[in-house]
Design brief:
Layout (H helix, E strand, L loop, with lengths): L6 H11 L10 H5 L2 H12 L10 H14 L7 E5 L7 H5 L4 E6 L2 H13 L5 E4 L11 E6 L9 H14 E13 H6 L3 E6 L1 H4 L6 E10 L4 E10 L3 E11 L1 H10 L2 E7 L13 E8 L1
Parallel strand pairs: 1-2, 1-4, 2-3, 4-5, 5-9
Antiparallel strand pairs: 5-11, 6-7, 7-8, 8-9, 10-11
Length: about 290
């Protein structure tokens, strides 16, 4: 006997597999400000042995060491970290005696960062805000945006942010950020998967069914992991967009905002650029 599913169920399943237009929805707050998922994300941040929310502690140490030497950071330096999370970079910058500002819209991450700074008697200013909307005061010698956060933004958001960076730069100031390369895009595969309590209960403390539909947009070099979380009394969709770049395509975006790519590296620890790698990092300066 063939059972015909109710129209409502069919419609719900159709919406799960529907391919949206690139960057047509922005749901970052679902991941970083939700009480349950933000707790799980903070745990990933603080696990020094994995590269999930943050890099491994050893890499962060190497990265800060390189940034300090390359940009000659000192007590007179002003640094701002966009998407600072629990302060893994900002706290290290502050130990140099630099004037450091960290911005993040996750209350849990900022709360941890502030408490840690107090415990360490570390002088860092933390702002709980959406960095797309918040306007820092003054000029900065170094602007950082690390862990490929830039790739999760739409073209309009990226352009707005780069123009903000350009206005915030001091004379001779620099921007450092990392992005996903086209190699990472080529390696991605479209598909659909389903699991009860998907990702070991990451999405909710209550039982749920998790679907992830993976899409690629070849013309735009964009990928999407579209998560649909179905609980007993609610259903949510979280969109994880990722833009992929070449140094040339990133140069074009920077140029439109009055910036230029000054150096290209493999990562924000200053390792040499590898054209076969899944990521690369850039140093941006004013035109």
């Amino acid at each position: 006997m063939i059972l015909v599913p109710p129209a409502s169920l069919y419609s719900a399943l159709e919406s799960i597999v529907e391919k949206p237009a690139p960057f047509s929805a922005y749901t970052a707050s679902e991941l970083w400000t939700d009480e349950h998922t933000s707790e799980r994300m903070l745990a990933f941040h603080l696990d020094s042995e994995i590269d999930v929310s943050s890099r491994r502690a050893k890499f962060i140490d190497d990265s800060v060491s390189w940034l300090t030497e390359y940009f000659e950071l000192s007590e007179s330096s002003r640094i701002v970290d966009f998407g600072c999370g629990p302060g893994l970079y900002t706290s290290r910058f502050a130990r140099l005696g630099a004037d450091v500002l960290g911005i993040d819209f996750s209350p849990r991450s900022i709360g941890y960062a502030r408490a840690q700074a107090k415990r360490e008697d570390c002088d860092v200013t933390y702002i709980e805000a959406n960095y797309l909307e918040f306007q820092p005061k003054g000029k900065f010698d170094l602007i950082t945006m690390i862990m490929c956060d830039y790739c999760a933004l739409s073209p309009g958001q990226r352009g707005m942010l780069l123009r903000k960076f350009e206005r915030l730069l001091s004379d001779g100031g620099c921007i450092v950020m990392d992005v996903y390369s086209l190699n990472a895009f080529v390696d991605k595969r479209e598909g659909l998967s389903f699991e009860k309590d998907q990702l070991s209960g990451f999405w909710s403390a209550s039982p749920y069914f998790g679907f992830v539909a993976r899409f690629k947009y070849d013309d735009e070099s964009v990928s999407l992991d579209k998560y649909t979380i179905v609980e007993e009394h609610r259903q949510r969709t979280v969109y994880n967009w990722l833009q992929h770049f070449t140094p040339e395509s990133l140069e074009r975006e920077a140029h439109a905002a009055g910036l230029r790519v000054d150096e290209v590296y493999c990562d924000v620890a200053g390792n040499p650029y590898d054209s076969d790698a899944a990521e690369f990092a850039v140093v941006l300066k004013r035109l």
